[in-house]
Amino acid sequence: MTDVHTEHPRTEPETPGRRRFRRPRAGTVLLVLGALVFLFPFYYMVVGSLQAETDTSVRGAFPTGGFTLENYRDIDERVDLVQSLLNSGIFTTGVLLGTLVFGVLAGYALARLHFRGRSSLFAVMLLVQIVPFQLLIIPIYVMIVRTYGLADSYLGMILPFLINSTAVFVFRQFFLSLPDDLFAAAALDGASELRILWSIALPLVRPALLTALLLTFIGPWNEFLWPFLVTKDTSMQPLAVTLANYISNVAGRASNPFGAGLAGAVVLAAPAVILFIAFQRHFTASNISSGVKG
Amino acid sequence: MATTSAPAASPRRLTALLGRQPLGILFAAPYAVFLAAIFAYPMGLAVWMSFHDYFFAAPGAQVDRPFVGFENYQAVISDPDVRQSFVNVGIFLIINVPLTVGLALTLAAALDRAVRFRTFLRVSYYVPYVTASVALVAVWMFLFSKDGMVNQILGPLAPEPSWLVNSTLAMPVIAVFVTWKQLGMFILLYLAALQNVSKDLYDAAAVDGASRWGQFRHVTVPGVRPATTLVVILATITGANLFTEPYLLTGGGGPDGASSSPVFVMYQKGIEQGNPDTAAAIGVILMLMVLAISLVNRKLLERD
Fold first, then answer.
1. Which domain holds residue A121?
2. In a domain, A189, yes or no
């Protein structure tokens, strides 16, 4: 490949909108190499989960045979995979539903309705995104587990995560970006606020909905600390917790401790990774950063 | 909100009380209740607990929880475990923050220009961010174990004791792990910021004969300053709530507390050892630090 760009005569005016003319080929090569480094642990996770015996040499990372599903059977024996996945699924679905229903309503109200307390609610919503949940675990643990006795229950797991504030923010930003005329016209036609939200605003913000729901999904699905604190009963624990318990306690006794752990890791990682790849084109700077910037 | 078309006196008063569209209160109510119950109340409870002799009692039991002033805070400040955990976060931040800012900005600038393999590149750099820490920790434990691949490659240069059980190296490994895990989010932030840097500035710099490095230094870096402030703040906050990594990757803040974090100590003291009052005090201290950092952030942003 010859470098055509350097051949451009200097006199050629800069065409507006063609900002990609500074394409660095070496940069792309480095980017691809970096990407491979970033992906390597994922590749190693899958390969390691399919090997009967761990081979930690460099060559062992590129096996040509000996693939087995033994590790998946092994982890399923020690950690009830189906039950754990079901628990993760219920926890995540609860949060998704809460965010979809209450979060969309709140985002809509914050963006389009003038009501008393709107600016205070908005300020608190921003504050929530600054103060990490982890710092409040002691009082929340006291409330949910000790006061309300919600240990080992789905409700106790879901409640602190019920409405994702980042998602509320993303919803607000998108409702805010819709043209005012649209709402005025609908209101003139006598549509109720709920009807405007449901049949006009929501269909228009579908990309935001997907982005926000993907962001919301990875919260509870990946969460470890809270379900770890609130569940002691193994049959209630989501996969992140049962797998972590396996890694920290049982691993030493398994025939191929790393292999079984890696098999569990693949099962835990796969849904989030697959969803992300399916929706990645919605996962853009403009969609997300609006939600994080505050 | 002075509307000239307000029809009658009493609706106007109602408008003044509830706002122009009181339905909004109804729409926002569930979220407001949620924030009050899960954020505001626990925050107050944490402060209250930290000033009282608070202990776990059987549900429904009426127990006396006397006010103890700053006793819990004194206990926290004089506790070597707590002190060490704060020092550890310091080490974490010294490694994690510059690494995050440098890598995220460089990669975002390069990704912004990349034309080929865009989808592949984006997916590769973002995917650790969407994946559960627990799953990723499983691989890193494998990679950095005593006979793991990293030591195999290093051969005689492999550290002794190995990475995760080495008191000097455990925290740096966590810092690098978290950098890798979170980088996607920060690349996204920088990509958004780069869209606001005027292309004319690059053209002007190019006309002035600035090299690509010169353009990066004199156009890109100042152009994304507000984003950099934000990235530093967010990375610092991430450092303040480390838990999963010290708990799992280094087997409970090991070796000997060398990689423990304040949230991990909070868990140990509050829930394992049953001292929720001192644990709440640690939480309040961390919260004040995070809020102070955010305030400084706002000041810096306003100055710009």
1. 86-237+275-293
2. yes
Kindly state the tokens that stand for A246.
Answer: 């396996």
Binding-face residues of A in 261-290 toward B, CB within 8 A: 261-262, 264-266, 268-269, 272-273, 275-277, 280-281, 283-286, 288-289
pLDDT 10s digit of each residue in chain B, 304 long? 444 444 455 767 777 777 788 888 999 999 999 999 999 999 999 999 999 998 887 766 778 888 988 999 999 999 999 999 999 999 999 999 999 999 999 999 999 888 788 889 989 999 999 999 999 999 999 999 888 899 999 988 989 888 988 999 999 999 999 999 999 999 999 998 898 888 888 888 888 888 888 888 888 888 888 888 888 888 888 888 899 999 999 888 878 889 999 999 999 999 999 999 999 999 999 999 888 887 887 777 666 5
The reply to whether A119 falls in a domain is yes
Chain B contacts of A22, Cβ < 8 Å?
113, 202, 212
Which CATH number does the domain housing residue A129 bear? 1.10.3720.10
Does CATH place domain B81-303 in 1.10.3720.10? Answer: yes
Cβ–Cβ contact B251 with A under 8 A: yes
Tell me whether A64 touches chain B (CB under 8 Å).
no
Give the nearest chain A residue to B110 (CA atoms): A27
Q: Please check whether residue B76 touches A, CB under 8 A.
A: no
Report whether B224 contacts B187 (CB < 8 A).
no
Nearest CA of chain B to the CA of A34: how many Å? 8
- Is A170 domain-assigned? yes
**A162 in any annotated domain:** yes
- Per the structure, the count of domains in chain A is 1
CA distance A22 to A18: 9
Helices A285-293 and B225-240: angle between axes, nearest 10 degrees:
70
Specify the length of chain A in residues: 294
| This model's pTM is above 0.90 | no
Cβ A115–B192 below 8 Å, yes or no? no
Nearest to B284 by CA among B51, B80, B66: B51
Tokens of A61: 């990372």
